Amino acid sequence: MSGLEGVYLGLDLGGTFLKAAVYEPSADTRTVLGAYPIGDGLELFEVTGQIVQSLAEQNKTTIGIGLGLPGVLDNRHNLRFSPHRSELVGVDIKAGIAGVSGVWPLVDNDANCSAALEAYEDPNSSILVVNFGTGVGAGLAINGSIYKGSNTSFGEIGHTGRHGGEICACKRVGCFEVELYTLLDPASSPDGPDFEAASELVSEVLFDYIRVLDPESLVLGGGLVYSTNGFFQMVSRLLESANSAYRSGFKLRISKATGLEYSGAVGAALLSSGVVGYVCDTIDH
Ligand SMILES: [Zn+2]
Which of 22, 54, 69, 272 has a CA between 20 and 30 Å from the CA of residue 165? Predict the structure, then answer.
């Protein structure tokens, strides 16, 4: 006879899919459920309800939900702007999830969720996680906790710098992620995406963050990093060479995200369970 098991559901909403994973504390297991296509962002609620229902049919009670969102959040963790999910800006996402699941979710940006998995895997370290997904965002794990900043605004690397003259969705001119994705846009050049120029841009930008934060580990994630275009190898090599030119013997581990495409979903589940928490947490979730 098997009793009901309490599980934490982690969700990671991207531009095309909702990725889902489950953390089961009693067995300390993390299980990938899959990727569910999401057209209009509002489908998020219906699909979440279906996942919770399907878990219930397997005698798994959802006792917590973590949701990673692509975009900049306000200090109530609602989406402030999101180039790829603008239909969810102004929507009370937490109430929507609670309505279909009976569980009040923890919501954070997708990079912080990815950082939560690294914090869990390597709890005695300082880790800068940079996610190249629908945009470019970063998370910082310090000794097993996530630092999100006093305005929940840590890690908006994508919306920094003065690279070129394009206006970003955030209304600034010259944002790093706009320049990066312009270089990678197949339509922007007759030769197709320029991975070499993109790697040079990324390694120059990350060099500055490494100088400022000096983490033990740099973790790169997102579709651009997992695909077989040599991007991860080129960025690693350029950064290693810049770091050793800066100071001989400079130590920085560079790796791909532990959970690859499901890092954000697994990390969201861990955050919702409280097994990974926040540094200096003063904000209501
Ligand atoms: Zn911007």
Answer: 69
